[in-house]
């Protein structure tokens, strides 16, 4: 009679302690890698958004300031360590006589934009500017008299007498607005007549040397004219966002020529 077969013990399945430890170690390394990658990517996104926002604010302010400076009265731009001021041009025309012979406080000119077909009364009280060797001569208009029924020409009476001139080779005169000031305060805020236009600018204005046209600390630099161009105003602002610190530079040419 054959011997009875012995039943083999069932094979056990699962992880050994060593395999479990190795698995947990590998999963931990993978988790750390994925977490670090996500953290790094999130940080890049946040810094990029912060930088774009700061740069966008500065770019908007620079574009507006550039437009205004291009329309500034020649010779009216004044630059200090932390500010830039100028007189904006409202309108411009040509004069026929400045001053009128026998009347040192009046000019004869083509009517400015504030005149209508029959009256120049809206011009009263506005500031008139003439150019004397690239220096503005400012006078207030006190009264006006139309020359002819259509008021194409007008005699403008001023609050004080003028010199003999001539004031401009092109015989131009301007009506200008109130003084505008752009200023960078100690908190890094850029303001136009006290209204916030940009922030986060980190120029060290106390170290600004305006005699050095390449001084990076000066937020505003006025570059003198040359034979090939008019005055330049250079805007240069240091902007900091996150871990980035970058210099923003833009040059604006004063386009109006007497």
UniProtKB/TrEMBL annotation:
InterPro entries referenced in this protein's UniProt entry, alphabetically: N_methyl_site
UniProtKB keywords: Membrane, Transmembrane, Transmembrane helix
Any matching Pfam family: N_methyl
Transmembrane stretches, start-end: 20-40
Name listed for the protein in its UniProt record: MSHA biogenesis protein MshO
Organism: Ferrimonas balearica (strain DSM 9799 / CCM 4581 / KCTC 23876 / PAT)
